[in-house]
Amino acid sequence: MTLPARSLRSDAARNRELLLAAAEEEFSKRGMDASIADVARRAGVAKGTVFRHFATKEELVAVVVGGHFVSLSAVAGKLLESADPTGALLEFLTVAAKQLQHQDLVFLQAVTEGDPTVTECRNQLHAGTNALVDRAQEAGGIRSDVTGPDILLILCALVHTVGLQTEQSPDSLQRHLIILFDGLRPQGASPLPGPVPERL
Amino acid sequence: MTLPARSLRSDAARNRELLLAAAEEEFSKRGMDASIADVARRAGVAKGTVFRHFATKEELVAVVVGGHFVSLSAVAGKLLESADPTGALLEFLTVAAKQLQHQDLVFLQAVTEGDPTVTECRNQLHAGTNALVDRAQEAGGIRSDVTGPDILLILCALVHTVGLQTEQSPDSLQRHLIILFDGLRPQGASPLPGPVPERL
Amino acid sequence: MTLPARSLRSDAARNRELLLAAAEEEFSKRGMDASIADVARRAGVAKGTVFRHFATKEELVAVVVGGHFVSLSAVAGKLLESADPTGALLEFLTVAAKQLQHQDLVFLQAVTEGDPTVTECRNQLHAGTNALVDRAQEAGGIRSDVTGPDILLILCALVHTVGLQTEQSPDSLQRHLIILFDGLRPQGASPLPGPVPERL
Amino acid sequence: MTLPARSLRSDAARNRELLLAAAEEEFSKRGMDASIADVARRAGVAKGTVFRHFATKEELVAVVVGGHFVSLSAVAGKLLESADPTGALLEFLTVAAKQLQHQDLVFLQAVTEGDPTVTECRNQLHAGTNALVDRAQEAGGIRSDVTGPDILLILCALVHTVGLQTEQSPDSLQRHLIILFDGLRPQGASPLPGPVPERL
DNA sequence: GATGAATGAGGGTTCATTCAT
DNA sequence: TATGAATGAACCCTCATTCAT
């Protein structure tokens, strides 16, 4: 009796993972326009199964978005142990940018508004980034008047917008990141690499 | 009394304006999820009337987005005559940010991709911003390795992302604009005003 | 006062003709799926003008269909004076077939059901074809057990159905007309021309 | 009692049948003007269910039309084994006429143009009728210059037209079939039964 | 009489969600 | 638990018809 129950459970767990992965993929490609049917298809399960795991589409989005916050928090947590506070912050921004670029879910935030789980995850992330920022500021690495959320917000904006470009070179993101870095430093500017973009 | 003589046409013209205003409002609030029915309702006309003025939803979006580009171009054009090149660029960014903040349609760009009219409007805007940037660069006001589209892109991203925040202080946008400005200057940083944001 | 009135009248009359011609064209091409807008456009007038001349779409159809009946009646009337009764009937069928093939409106009949004007026109046509058939039967040219409407009906059916074929040779209609003729003669059969059709 | 075991699938199957029957009915009455909503209503299901079974209206039409071709093919196939080739052909025409009369879908052919499944079904039907015709020709039962498609086309035309008549006697179809038969025979004609039709 | 703007019902189609199996 | 069939609301768009000018 317990064994089949366990096997069912693990099947369910596996389906949940498949669904989350599929949802991430679909939502990052088509936003809320991604259909539950598409998610189910990509996960290789039936539509009904999606609703067994997530009561509504919004809940699924919330879990996906929350997961991203958690994963970014983990990065921040690890870098908090670095010996170079300023380097750690820049490293965080670079890593976070790459992750966000791979799967841009920022614009789904609005949908998760008010979800307590997502809020919790986001608060955790903010705590992490604030700590990173504090350390860098203490070390004199960045201007003293910005906060973790400030930086995070700008980062998301940059990533998202780069994604909107039709002709984006591999350096597009890097260009904008450097502008951000320079804006964060107490002093001067660095050279930008790569070809210049021609269109908005 | 003489004016009402041609009121039929002017009624149609009025409806067109009402529709564009309604569309701007709806699209800026709900993006492409805004329904034609909502636009019609807000404009106070029947659904069919929308299609009399704009053959498809995409066309309506294109006209609205194109209009924004034109209006931004006008701002750029006026500032091109300023005696202070660097100040003109910063002024442009500030004004543009406010306009975009009021009605953020940037994220509808993807939908208008390939529309020749929108493309034309966008090119004009790019020309204007490039000119502003060139002048500021010649005056040594901003780093020499960025382009008009670079800056515009970042600006749009900031506005859009700030708009996603639920609890945004009036200074939110300004804070981030200043970081952007500082990232653009060849040298140091400026103080950030206002309360610090708490959430992403 | 009378002159401008007259000129208006003749303009109206001209528009009526233009509309009927346009309607014939459109309806024969697309049946009831032809839109009033298309008819108006082809006639070079505004949509509203169509409704000034014909109260409803159905009325327009009725007038067009009635006109066809009248025109076929005229052909029958002329051939009634022929010295060769059997030849006259066959000639009628051939001419009628060509006219119908050019503009097939038979399938719009259902729409005109109950319209007294169309009924009148149709009755006149039936009188004409009955007379043609009677004469041919008296002359021993065709079997004595068919009627004018029988023949007309079959003719219309053939034309319409041939019109549905995608790959119709110019001889398609002729092939089938000859089979019909042979079915009408008291005796034997005639050779069929042209390539054989491959599809239904 | 053992059968209901697989009732889920059979419910779906049942709905499919209901839908096809409803579609046949509606399409044969109103052609492509029949609405999906009407079909759904007649089948007793929701509109969405129609699209679960048939992706588009065109697909539904294609399936219905294809089904008719298949069913006619079956009749032809069975009669191919008859000992009396000429009788078999006439029997086929009679049976086919009755089936077509019950549900006239000929005029929907245009819509299915290019659909590979329908094409396949139609080709099969043509093969069957050609075989029937060949045998009848070898037996000297019908003229040697007609083909299966020829006959099929005339048959469809006759049936369709009889359907257009407002006051059709039960003999209407028979009258026209006999004319067709006589047109197919190498020699003379047969008497027509029933009252003569009065209207086109 | 002519125009063309406005209306609104209706059509095909999609999709989140429910539920019987 | 998983499935996928069914639902029905919502969407974009078309078109006959009305009516102010």
Explain this structure to me?
Four copies of one chain form a homotetramer. By secondary structure, chain A is an all-alpha fold. The first copy, chain A, has two domains: 1-55, Orthogonal Bundle (Arc Repressor Mutant, subunit A); 57-184, Tetracycline Repressor, domain 2, CATH 1.10.357.10. Helix content of chain A is 71%, strand content 0%. Chain A contains nine helices and no strands. Chain A starts with a helix and ends in a 16-residue tail after the last helix. Chain B binds a DNA duplex (21 and 21 nucleotides) through α1 and α3.
Outline:
4 copies of one chain form a homotetramer. Chain A is an all-alpha fold. Chain A contains 9 helices and no strands.
Fill in the keyword field for this structure.
Homeodomain-like_sf (chains A, B, C, D); disordered C terminus; 71% helix; Tetracycline Repressor, domain 2; Arc Repressor Mutant, subunit A; 9 helices; transcription (chains A, B, C, D); 200 residues; DNA-binding; homotetramer; 2 domains; HTH-type_TetR-like_transc_reg (chains A, B, C, D); DNA-binding transcription factor activity (chains A, B, C, D)
Topology:
Four copies of one chain form a homotetramer.
Chain A (H helix, E strand, L loop, with lengths): L1 H29 L5 H8 L3 H7 L3 H23 L5 H18 L6 H4 L3 H23 L9 H17 L7 H13 L16
Helix pairs in contact in A: 1-2, 1-4, 4-5, 4-7, 5-7, 5-8, 7-8, 8-9
The structure holds a DNA duplex (21 and 21 nucleotides).
What is the number of E strands of chain A? 0
- Residue stretches of chain A low in confidence (pLDDT < 50, at least 5 long) are 1-6, 193-200
Count the domains of chain A.
Answer: 2
Instruction: Label the structural class of chain A.
Output: mainly alpha
Distance between the termini of chain A: 62 Å
What's the overall average pLDDT of chain A, rounded? 84
CATH topology of the largest domain in chain A: Tetracycline Repressor, domain 2
Largest sheet of chain A: none
Estimate what percentage of residues of chain A fall within beta strands: under 5%
What are the secondary-structure elements of chain A, in order, as H or E?
HHHHHHHHH
Rounded to an integer in angstroms, the radius of gyration calculated over CA atoms of chain A is 19 Å
CATH homology superfamily of the largest domain in chain A: Tetracycline Repressor, domain 2
Count of helical stretches of chain A: 9
What top-tier CATH class of the largest domain in chain A fits best? Mainly Alpha
Q: Which range best describes the helical content of chain A: under 10%, 10-25%, 25-40%, 40-55%, 55-70% or over 70%?
A: over 70%
Shape of chain A: globular
Oligomeric state, counting identical vs distinct chains? homotetramer
Second rung of CATH, namely the architecture of the largest domain in chain A: Orthogonal Bundle
Domain HTH tetR-type (chains A, B, C, D): 13-72
Organism (chains A, B, C, D): Lipingzhangella halophila
Protein name (chains A, B, C, D): AcrR family transcriptional regulator
InterPro entries (chains A, B, C, D): DNA-bd_HTH_TetR-type_CS, Homeodomain-like_sf, HTH-type_TetR-like_transc_reg, HTH_TetR, Tet_transcr_reg_TetR-rel_C_sf, TetR_SbtR-like_C
